[in-house]
Amino acid sequence: VTVERADRSKHLVAFYSGPKPLDTGTLTGRLAESLPEYMVPSAFHWRESLPLTANSKIDKKALAALAEEPATTDDEHQPPATPTEHRLAAAWAKVLGVPQDRIGRRDHFFDRGGTSLSAVKLAIALDRAVSLKDVTAHPVLTDLAALVDHGPQRHATRH
């Protein structure tokens, strides 16, 4: 389903069902191999079953409502713990258009609705303390904070 963010931009959210949740990194990677970037969903939600209409078709309105809810994981919400994590959470909240208290230290930037464009905006908001490549390589808040805290020697990693 397509979901509109607070900044009026839109992103795709995918829902799937199956015996168990799949690794979102694998899903994203597989789809990115054959789809243009704008067609790769920014978030994936596993459900034991998908909501159906009275006609036994997928209920897209119900999925759109579910997509508006913040992404949840099996882990409990862990608020930012370090000054750098708090600074990054504030920037994420601004760029993603979500309340800062909803950003947790184990949150994944792209699962929260981030895109390459919003990652660039994040880099600018952080006075270029991180780059687009850094956000892509370290999309979890606590990992990105560790990168910022440990300085430029980690920026030289190759992909």
Structure commentary:
The protein is an alpha+beta fold and 159 residues long. The protein folds into two domains: 2-68, ANL, C-terminal domain (GMP Synthetase, Chain A, domain 3), CATH 3.30.300; 83-156, ACP-like (Non-ribosomal Peptide Synthetase Peptidyl Carrier Protein, Chain A, Orthogonal Bundle). It has helices at residues 24-34, 60-68, 83-96, 116-125, 132-137, 141-149; strands at residues 2-4, 10-17, 43-47. A three-stranded mixed sheet has the order 1-2-3, covered by helices on one side. Helix 3 (83-96) crosses helix 4 and helix 3 packs across helix 6. The chain starts with a strand and ends in a 10-residue tail after the last helix. Residues 154-159 have low confidence and may be disordered.
What's the gyration radius in Å? 16 Å
For this structure, the CATH topology of the largest domain is Non-ribosomal Peptide Synthetase Peptidyl Carrier Protein, Chain A
Q: Quick one: biggest sheet?
A: 3 strands, mixed
| C-alpha geometry | elongated
Give the helices and strands, then pairings.
Elements: E1 2-4, E2 10-17, H1 24-34, E3 43-47, H2 60-68, H3 83-96, H4 116-125, H5 132-137, H6 141-149
Parallel strand pairs: 2-3
Antiparallel strand pairs: 1-2
Helix pairs in contact: 3-4, 3-6
